[in-house]
């Protein structure tokens, strides 16, 4: 087998078209990715970076002390809806604070002045006990499952807390993005406010300060009015003010808004509607053109020149010959594709950032991130699989023109036609044809995505196995 691989490597590298095709794989992948990044612009980062908008049930806390409550129930109004306890300089928007909260999907979080954050252990959800203890400007947060055994979440420093601060309960629920497909690649939608609700009990404040023990006040910490542009997407002003209902020691509070800063405590999570990695690797669809040509020529060129008889004469075991060709072909296309995908990612990253598609709304992708690494390496593997499918089709048809036309139709023409037809047709093509392999580029799930990254890659692997399996079977049963 080693001898057959060496022979196929020598043949492939001795043909001028091989170098041209590999250069085209690299160039198309990088160039189209570069052009796509140059043409993409966004304004999500023009939105307010910090948000301080919630319903606040509070009393005065004089000097050092603590506020404790059990979040008995929390409505799952949004993934980052927040309910918990907070110590705040005043009820004015933007005043210093430290908050300890539970969320439906992201556990317990602690936040100070939208600048520093600490995370509780595990994926804790309500019911959970929460406590903030103040010592000067330093506030320590604790969580507990039963109100007896407490676990420290962190100690954070508030920017500016007066001796007499406000402490108590809060509820916030960010706006949610509602989208729908009205055509292939055509999405309509917008942000809608949500209203969170939480039930608190075992509420204590010590020391209580100047106010009476039952003198709890509800205040909406409100953002300035927003009338246009991206800021409305972040601030998500509530449709109605918060409410408070008391039954003995049980508080039921509703509220909208959010608390934090883009990139911290989930603020801006609904704005991540752009996959930077997928956009950077958009050139892979054109890199496939060169991979198809190389895969077809690796077989049909020998049929055209008649050297296939010499090859089979030197190595009568035809299955071994085809296996060697497949190994050599994949071994050349994959590293070329990997160099191209890494280059495209690194080249487009500063361009995207310059065009408003960067942090904090759209974090910089890093090759060290497992999801990004999967997309980069998987795209290179997709190019290699496309070359192998082309090799199999070349064996079956034996004619360069026929094989190339067929494959171009499957990988290029059919997807283009699907994009201008209907949502159902487009989704079916992107799920059930070999083009599904390009889903491996996705690093987040967006509305227009037809299949999952590994699901699409598996479809392409299936087509590769069928094409090569048929090629092995046919080649062993017909004349050269």
> Shape from CA axes?
elongated
| C-alpha-based Rg, rounded | 30 Å
Round the mean pLDDT to the nearest integer and report it. Answer: 85
The description of the largest β-sheet is: 8 strands, antiparallel
Query: From N to C, what is the helix and strand string?
Result: HHEEEEEEEEEEEEEEHEEEHHHHHHHH
SS strand fraction: 25-35%
Helical percentage: 40-55%
**Poorly predicted runs of 5 or more residues:** 226-237
The DSSP helix count reads 11
Total number of strands: 17
Kindly, what is the distance between the CA atoms of the first and last residues, rounded to a whole number of angstroms?
20 Å
Secondary structure class reads alpha+beta
Provide a descriptive summary of the structure in words.
The chain is α+β, with helices and mostly antiparallel strands and 480 residues long. Helix content is 41%, strand content 26%. The chain has 11 helices and 17 strands. The strands form 3 sheets. Strands 1, 3, 4, 5, 6, 10, 14 and 17 form an 8-stranded antiparallel beta sheet that branches. It has a 7-stranded antiparallel beta sheet with strand order 9-8-7-2-13-16-15, with no helix packed on it. Strands 11-12 form a two-stranded antiparallel sheet. Helix 2 packs antiparallel against helix 5, helix 8 crosses helix 9 (400-419) and helix 9 crosses helix 10. The chain is elongated. The two termini are 20 Å apart. The model is unreliable at 226-237 (pLDDT under 50).
């Amino acid at each position: 087998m080693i001898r057959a691989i060496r022979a196929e490597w020598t043949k492939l590298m001795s043909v001028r078209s091989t170098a041209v095709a590999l250069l085209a794989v690299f160039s198309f992948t990088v160039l189209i990715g570069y052009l796509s990044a140059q043409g993409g612009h966004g304004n999500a980062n023009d939105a307010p970076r910090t948000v301080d908008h919630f319903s606040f049930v509070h009393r005065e806390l004089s000097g050092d002390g603590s506020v404790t409550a059990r979040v008995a129930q929390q409505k799952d109004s949004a993934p980052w809806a927040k309910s918990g306890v907070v110590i705040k300089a005043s009820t004015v928007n933007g005043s210093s604070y430290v908050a300890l909260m539970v969320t439906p999907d992201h556990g317990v979080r602690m936040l100070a002045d939208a600048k520093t954050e600490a995370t509780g252990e595990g994926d804790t959800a309500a019911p959970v006990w929460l406590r903030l203890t103040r010592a000067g400007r330093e506030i320590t947060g604790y969580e507990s499952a039963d109100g007896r055994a407490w676990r420290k979440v962190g100690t954070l420093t508030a920017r500016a807390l007066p001796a007499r601060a406000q402490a108590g309960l809060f509820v916030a629920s960010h706006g949610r993005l509602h989208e729908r497909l009205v055509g292939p690649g055509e999405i309509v939608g917008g942000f809608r406010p949500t209203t969170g609700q939480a039930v608190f009990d075992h509420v204590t404040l010590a020391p209580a300060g100047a106010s009476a023990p039952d003198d709890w006040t509800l205040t909406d910490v409100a953002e300035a009015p927003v009338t246009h542009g991206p800021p409305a997407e972040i601030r998500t002003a509530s449709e109605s003010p918060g409410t408070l209902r008391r039954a003995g020691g049980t508080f039921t509070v509703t509220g909208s808004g959010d608390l934090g800063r883009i990139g911290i405590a989930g603020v801006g999570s609904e704005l991540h509607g752009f996959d930077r990695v997928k956009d950077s690797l958009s050139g892979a669809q054109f890199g496939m053109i060169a991979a198809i040509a190389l895969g077809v020529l690796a077989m049909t060129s020998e049929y055209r020149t008649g050297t296939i008889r010499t090859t089979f004469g030197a190595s009568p075991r035809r299955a071994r010959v085809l296996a060697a060709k497949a190994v050599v072909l994949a071994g050349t296309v994959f590293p070329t594709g990997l160099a191209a995908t890494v280059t495209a990612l690194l080249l487009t990253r500063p361009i995207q950032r310059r065009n408003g598609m960067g942090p904090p709304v759209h974090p910089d992708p890093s090759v060290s991130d497992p999801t990004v690494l999967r997309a980069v390496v998987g795209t290179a593997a997709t190019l290699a699989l496309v070359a192998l499918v082309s090799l199999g089709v070349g064996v079956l048809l034996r004619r360069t023109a026929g094989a190339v036309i067929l494959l171009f139709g499957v990988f290029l023409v059919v997807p283009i036609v699907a994009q201008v037809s209907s949502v159902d047709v487009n989704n079916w093509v992107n799920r059930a044809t070999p083009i599904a392999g390009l889903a491996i580029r996705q690093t987040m799930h967006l509305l227009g995505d037809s299949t999952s990254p590994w699901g699409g890659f598996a479809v392409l692997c299936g087509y590769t196995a069928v094409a090569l399996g048929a090629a092995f079977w046919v080649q062993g049963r017909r004349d050269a």
